[in-house]
Automatic annotation (TrEMBL):
UniProt entry tagged with the keyword Hydrolase: yes
GO biological process, one term: actin filament bundle assembly
Domain DUF7910 span(s) in chain numbering: 59-132
Superkingdom field: Eukaryota
GO cellular component: actin cytoskeleton; cytoplasm
Record's keyword annotation contains Aminoacyl-tRNA synthetase: no
Entry keywords, A to Z: Glycosidase, Hydrolase
Organism: Triticum urartu
MF terms in GO: actin filament binding; hydrolase activity, hydrolyzing O-glycosyl compounds
Family classification: Belongs to the glycosyl hydrolase 5 (cellulase A) family.
Protein name as annotated: Putative glucan 1,3-beta-glucosidase A
């Protein structure tokens, strides 16, 4: 009798586990929301994060008595005053330090103020710097570098613990959404000792997110939003200066695969793990198709090493002339998804569109584009980012409802589903929370 009861007990436990796993895995297509600006900083989403940085970007650079160059000063002084000497074309410059010598880049990757020779402005001169003007970047690199580790750590930990909380997951589930797409940065795999200037703590926050997702039966899409070297020059890839260096070497690709392996290993057992997105918005031509396919295959294998069930999402390249370039490749693998992002923004042609022109573009152009990548025997399709925002001035609530509904109707045909960008934002229309609470978006149908 005792043995029989014991067997019944363990059978009940097993059934409960299976029920929990089944309940936590949403049916496709999903209706999801991005948790943007949480674990990967984007200043435009919450500008106040940068309020404590005097110039909103970087610390002041200064020269120490031994000629070394550091970025630790918080107020300008003599040692932070440099003279810029430009060439005739003004596309190159030398930087003269307060000691009368020029800064030079050394072979050991340090910069020192100890170069006193004349220059011909050639590439072989370590004191000559190319001038590229980059403004407006407010990403993870800038916030960590701008505050410095000591200050950035408590600021970001407070942000992570207050910006998205358990009650948000409750709201997401109650509103009729079935999944969350969570952007993460590559440094999360090195937590609690990430490389400078990044700070520790985001991994523990992601752990909490999975716990909350399990509690409220939400699927989780882990999205590698920022890869080492940056897969595009934008702040959301944590580009340090607008450069794009991801995928330019085998070592870089291998490093990125290690991040995916770490994440898949850590969360494969969670009933809420729905998918791993290998990379967000790689930009062509900097991210070559050859490098991307190499990485996607290795990243896919890294996920499959730990999970046969999790979907593997592969983002299309931004600015690629061929939206179908990954279909055959991804179609040869199991449980794969192609991610496309559709906005009626970020292109000058939308600047003068009327309400009806925007709606028509979505129902015609984006509907056709989605059909082009949605094949019966191919990978699933996912509109991983969209928003009910446009360039129409003074749009009414009814017009914005039309915009949201048109997109949900069209993107609802994506076989994997869609995800709104983003849950919270100081710009109301970019905040799905605000849009739902104020009646602009309804998911109760």
């Amino acid at each position: 009798m005792r043995s029989h009861l014991s067997h019944c007990f363990w059978l009940l436990v097993a059934l409960c586990f299976l029920y929990r796993r089944a309940a936590a895995a949403p049916r496709l297509p999903v209706r999801a929301v991005n948790l943007g600006g949480w674990l990967v900083t984007e200043g435009w989403i919450l500008p106040s994060l940068f309020d404590g940085i005097p110039n909103k970007d970087l610390l002041l650079v200064s020269v120490q008595s031994d000629g070394s160059v550091v970025a630790t000063a918080t107020s300008p002084g003599k040692s932070e005053t440099f003279r810029l000497v430009r060439n005739a074309g003004k596309d190159r410059m030398q930087i003269m330090a307060p000691n009368g010598l020029f800064l030079q880049a050394n072979k050991d990757s340090t910069v020192t103020a100890d170069y006193g020779k004349s220059t011909s402005w050639g590439d072989d001169d370590p004191s000559v710097f190319a001038v590229t003007r980059v403004t407006g970047l407010q990403g993870e690199y800038q916030i960590c570098n701008g505050y410095g580790t000591a200050k950035a750590t408590p600021i970001l930990k407070n942000h992570w613990s207050t910006y998205i909380v358990e009650d948000d997951f409750r709201f997401i589930s109650k509103s009729g959404l079935t999944a969350v797409r969570i952007p993460v940065g590559w440094w999360i795999a090195s937590d609690p000792s990430p490389p400078a200037p990044y700070v520790e703590g985001s991994l523990q926050t992601l752990d909490k997110a999975f716990k909350w997702a399990e509690e409220y039966n939400l699927g989780v899409i882990i999205d590698l939003h920022a890869a080492p070297g940056s897969q595009n020059p934008f702040e959301h890839s944590a580009s340090k200066d607008g450069s794009q260096d991801w995928g330019t070497s085998a070592a870089n690709i291998a490093q990125t695969v290690q991040v995916i392996d770490f994440l898949a290993s850590r969360y494969a057992a969670s009933p809420s793990l729905l998918a791993v997105e290998l990379l967000n918005e790689p930009l062509a031509p900097g991210a070559s198709l050859e490098s991307l396919k190499t990485y996607y295959r290795d990243g896919y294998n890294a996920v499959r090493k730990h999970s046969s069930e999790a979907y593997v999402i592969m983002s299309n390249r931004l600015s690629s002339p061929d939206p179908t370039e990954l279909l055959e490749f991804a179609g040869g693998l199991s449980r794969t998804v192609i991610d496309v992002h559709y906005y009626v923004l970020f292109n000058s042609m939308f600047d003068t569109f009327t309400v009806q022109q925007n709606i028509d573009f979505i129902k015609t152009n984006y509907s056709s584009a989605l059909s082009t990548v949605t094949k019966q025997n191919g990978p699933l399709t996912f509109v991983g980012e969209w928003v009910a925002e446009w360039q129409v001035p003074n749009a009414t609530k009814e017009e914005l409802q039309m915009l949201a509904n048109a997109q949900m109707d069209v993107y609802g045909k994506a076989t994997f589903g869609w995800a709104y960008w983003t849950l919270k934002n100081v710009n109301n229309h970019w905040s799905m929370e605000w849009m739902i609470k104020n009646g602009y978006i309804s998911l109760k149908n």
